[in-house]
Design goal:
elongated; 0% strand; 55% helix; mainly alpha; 67 residues
């Protein structure tokens, strides 16, 4: 089921640039050539930045007139 969903999504995206027949052929060739894997990322922590303390950011804001 997952492969069919990826096929449908890929064909829909490829059809923006080529005919459906070309898209299906391209997908078939890529599917035979490539070894597909699913990668899932689970972040351990979120990083953030306090731009008010960043001198370069403040300099940019000043040049833009956005103090």
């Amino acid at each position: 089921m997952l492969v069919k969903a990826h096929f449908t999504e890929a064909i829909n995206k490829l059809e923006k640039y080529m005919s459906r027949e070309e898209a299906e052929k391209f997908w078939q060739i890529m599917n035979e050539w490539a070894k597909w894997v699913k990668i899932t990322l689970n972040p351990e922590r979120m990083a953030s930045c306090d731009y008010d303390k960043d001198d370069k950011w403040q300099e940019l804001l000043n040049k833009m007139g956005w103090e």
